[in-house]
């Protein structure tokens, strides 16, 4: 018998989020927590948020690059939910003290023009359902101590979702070569990492197709207007008060995020 249930896990993860407190992995007390149950916890967590008035605005992918997989010690991509409460306006600062241990990662972001419903969605089909492409940052904040988790833990914790921001510059997908799209990440003016769009499963469209096909297994589809974060291109950097993280892309432009 596990000491946890879906309900008590949801309650504990919400308590940690609201109390800005990290804690042990759920799999410590629930060693045989499987992926299917972990996604049911994630969906139940979303239900609690939508009952509280939040609305779903899209989906995030996580662990789609080797840089992220290596750092987190988990090599399987996953998805989580984005809600309106996670949205930051371009240039809006992030109060570090309102979170547990926020980290920032640069991502290529899609806004969907058409519904995308799996199974069997290809990268080409996925890309043709995209309305616009944006440079973005995700702010992740694990509810686990030191971001120490196994795959079912991080799935249950909504893929460490916390906040995200898109640059105001919308680029039409036609003519973009997203595998070659460069990204230079810097902190307070010093370059800390570089990557191209190929870091994300060879091409960010593969991440979008993966999300559509994964959601289809749960009877869900990607809806028009949804925002899709395709996953960190580089390792994430901790956000500190007074420090500014910047990402310079090529065709997608640049954006910055400052901690306070
Ligand atoms: C899990 C979420 C990973 C990404 O872009 O790879 C993620 C984590 O690193 O805590 O959002
Ligand atoms: Mg991310």
TrEMBL record:
<dbReference type="GO" id="GO:0008684">
    <property type="term" value="F:2-oxopent-4-enoate hydratase activity"/>
</dbReference>
<protein>
    <submittedName>
        <fullName>2-oxo-3-hexenedioate decarboxylase</fullName>
        <ecNumber>4.1.1.77</ecNumber>
    </submittedName>
</protein>
<feature type="domain" description="Fumarylacetoacetase-like C-terminal">
    <location>
        <begin position="62"/>
        <end position="256"/>
    </location>
</feature>
<dbReference type="InterPro" id="IPR050772">
    <property type="entry name" value="Hydratase-Decarb/MhpD_sf"/>
</dbReference>
<dbReference type="InterPro" id="IPR036663">
    <property type="entry name" value="Fumarylacetoacetase_C_sf"/>
</dbReference>
<dbReference type="GO" id="GO:0005737">
    <property type="term" value="C:cytoplasm"/>
</dbReference>
<dbReference type="GO" id="GO:0047437">
    <property type="term" value="F:4-oxalocrotonate decarboxylase activity"/>
</dbReference>
<dbReference type="InterPro" id="IPR011234">
    <property type="entry name" value="Fumarylacetoacetase-like_C"/>
</dbReference>
<dbReference type="Pfam" id="PF01557">
    <property type="entry name" value="FAA_hydrolase"/>
</dbReference>
<keyword id="KW-0456">Lyase</keyword>
């Amino acid at each position: 018998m596990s000491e946890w249930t879906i309900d008590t896990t949801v309650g504990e993860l919400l308590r940690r989020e609201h109390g800005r407190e990290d804690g042990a992995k759920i799999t410590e007390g629930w060693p045989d927590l499987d992926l299917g149950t972990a996604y049911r916890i994630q969906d139940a967590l979303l239900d609690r948020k939508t009952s509280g008035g939040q609305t779903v605005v899209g989906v995030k992918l996580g662990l789609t690059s080797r840089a992220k997989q290596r750092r987190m010690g988990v090599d399987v991509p996953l998805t989580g939910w984005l809600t309106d409460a996670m949205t930051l306006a371009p240039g809006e600062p992030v109060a570090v003290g309102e979170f547990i241990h926020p980290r920032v990662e640069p991502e290529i972001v899609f806004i969907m023009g058409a519904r995308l419903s799996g199974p069997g969605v290809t990268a080409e089909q996925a890309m043709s359902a995209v309305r616009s492409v944006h440079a973005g940052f995700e702010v992740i904040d694990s509810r686990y101590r030191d971001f120490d988790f196994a795959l079912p833990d991080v799935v249950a914790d909504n893929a460490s979702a916390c906040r995200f921001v898109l640059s105001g510059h919308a680029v039409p997908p036609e003519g973009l070569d997203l595998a070659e799209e460069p990204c230079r990440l810097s902190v307070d003016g010093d370059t800390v990492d570089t990557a191209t769009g190929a870091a994300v499963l060879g091409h960010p469209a593969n991440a979008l197709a993966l999300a559509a096909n994964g959601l289809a297994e749960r009877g869900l589809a990607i809806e028009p207007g949804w925002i899709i974060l395709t996953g960190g291109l580089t390792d994430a950097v901790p956000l500190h008060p007074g420090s500014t993280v910047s990402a310079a892309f090529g065709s997608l432009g640049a954006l910055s995020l400052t901690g306070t």
